[in-house]
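Quick one:
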Amino acid sequence: MLAFGRYNHPTTKIQSLTGNLDSHCKIGLEGIISEAGDGKCDHLILNCSAITGLDLGGVGQLYTWYFNLKANRIRLSIVSPPSFVREALEAAHLTDLIPIYRSVPEAMLNGLSAQASPR
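Output:
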């Protein structure tokens, strides 16, 4: 079971994920995507520091989340994944699509830099 913690920034949503990341995980993308349409969200940061398990379904979920968000012009970043999660993401080439950062402030700073440059 995956638990979530949410924190807000004017245009960035930060979600802390806890537990197993698998095919049954939901993070409420519909709400985030509708907020993007209102100009309230253009960057989603997943804090993965407390992930305790990851399976192929979880990797698939990350692909799905990435493409759903990208279609709505929302950037996705991952923060502090455990080494086994990072290795799985690298093996699946997800790190080619989704940047990984050491901390939430680093992800936010890079997200703000990306926002300033034209898309």
